[in-house]
Design brief:
By secondary structure, the chain is α+β, with helices and mostly antiparallel strands. 37% of the residues lie in helices and 26% in strands. Helix 10 packs across helix 11. About 2% of the residues have low confidence.
Length: 405
């Protein structure tokens, strides 16, 4: 026999472990082992969890869970031509084997009687078994061995197998069993970014690494987002109250999500956020990556704005031409030092000087010191032309051995 169940994907390993334990009994009983086959994986809205979440927050996002459809194959042991049907306790409670037929009331009322030895007494358990024609009879525990032949020297083991199998198939589809927990909840990337935006507007952004290296500085943003999405009870209510009055900037939130879905790059981080942004739903352990999309997008937009500004500024500059011939020692008048950058290389610090002459021609000097003049000063300079180059579409002249003329 087999049945199809939907199991939380995160609990598949626990389900397989339980099957392994049950199959140890199956081998001793010479019963065909139980098998599990994963058929498909899907994500769906957990309607019950979502409904509970919206009791305290009408705007709470859908709670989603990843499930796997599995097929569980197994069989009820047949012993000497008889099949176990049920165990009946002294109060008349019937514990049926998987897929077994119902025990007739007449047999339940006769609990305590054994049709094999004929003794009718108070028993801790009476077993109902059926022959190949489906006819049921009652057997006491002590007579089970004679009644069912080779097998039943250990009826406890037989029934333990049946109980474990029944428990397995019942728990596999029960979201409140050991196979389900709030840690399995999932949320759409948009829901995570919405919660992140609320946290940032209320507490600012704090990366987990910064918080770890600076104890006492505060709680990381990702942890606060997890509180909003996964926690329950009074603690969660208090955290959600902190962000209840935040006015959402949906353009910024949606813009960050769309950026992450298409962002180019091959670094681990970029690949991670691109994958998660395109996922249907994300779970607890990936909240940190998704939460970081908003500040990452903000920085990317700042860099793009600066790039555009510089490009526009370059367009407004006069044309830059090469100065002198390569190898010539020349004097250039009215040279302005625009900026100096320190470059830390294998041979120590190099100072990159960027300069412009009176005609707008760009000059570059890589020096071992920054003693030529102050940034913003205009000087006459003597230097040797090293090469003619180009940067960002503008010609520049690289010099060396520069000094004030």
């Amino acid at each position: 026999m087999y049945k199809i169940y939907e199991v939380l994907s995160s609990k598949l390993d626990a389900l397989r472990a339980r099957i392994t334990r049950i199959n140890k009994i199956a081998r001793k009983l010479n019963v065909t082992p139980i098998t599990l086959t994963a058929l498909r994986t899907f994500i769906e809205v957990d309607a019950d969890a979502t409904r509970k979440a919206r009791k305290w927050d009408s705007d709470a996002p859908d709670v989603m869970r990843e499930r796997t459809e599995v097929r569980i194959d197994g069989e009820t042991p047949k012993l000497g031509g008889y099949t176990f049907v049920a165990r009946i306790d002294p109060d008349g409670i019937v514990f049926g084997a998987p897929d077994a037929p119902d025990v007739p009331n007449a047999l339940v009322d006769r609990r305590g009687a054994c049709d094999h030895c004929g003794l009718d007494r108070k028993r801790s358990a009476t077993f109902a078994v059926a022959n190949e024609d489906g006819e049921m009879t009652l057997v006491g525990r002590n007579c089970l061995g004679d009644f069912m032949g080779a097998f039943a020297n250990d009826p406890h083991m037989v029934w333990k197998f049946l109980e474990d199998f029944e428990s397995l198939t019942r728990d596999a589809s029960d979201p409140d069993s050991a196979f389900g927990s709030k840690g399995d909840a999932m949320f759409s990337p948009l829901a995570v970014l919405t919660a992140t935006f609320k946290v940032i507007k209320t507490h600012g952004w704090l990366a987990a690494g910064v918080a770890f290296n600076n104890p006492g500085i505060g709680k990381p943003t990702a942890s606060r987002v997890r509180d909003l999405l996964f926690e329950t009870g009074k603690y969660a209510d208090a955290k959600r109250a902190e962000v209840a009055n935040v006015i959402l900037d949906t353009d910024r939130i949606n813009g960050a999500l769309e950026w992450a879905r298409t962002v180019e790059g091959d670094s681990d981080y970029i690949r991670n956020i691109r994958t998660l942004a395109n996922a249907e739903a994300v779970g607890y352990k990936h909240i940190g990556f998704v939460a970081s999309i908003i500040p990452a997008h903000d920085k990317a937009m700042e860099r793009e704005t600066e790039r555009v500004r510089k490009a526009e500024a370059r367009k407004a500059l006069p044309e830059s031409n090469w100065v002198g011939d390569i190898g010539d020692r020349i004097t250039i008048k009215y040279v302005t030092l625009d900026n100096i950058r320190e470059l830390d290389g294998n041979f120590g610090i190099t100072y990159l000087h960027k300069m412009t002459d009176a005609d707008g021609n760009e000059l570059v000097w890589f020096a071992s010191n920054d003693n030529l003049c102050k940034v913003g000063d205009t000087i006459n300079m003597t230097a040797t032309v090293k090469r003619h180059g180009e940067f960002n579409g503008r010609k520049n002249t690289v010099v060396n051995r520069a000094k004030v003329a």
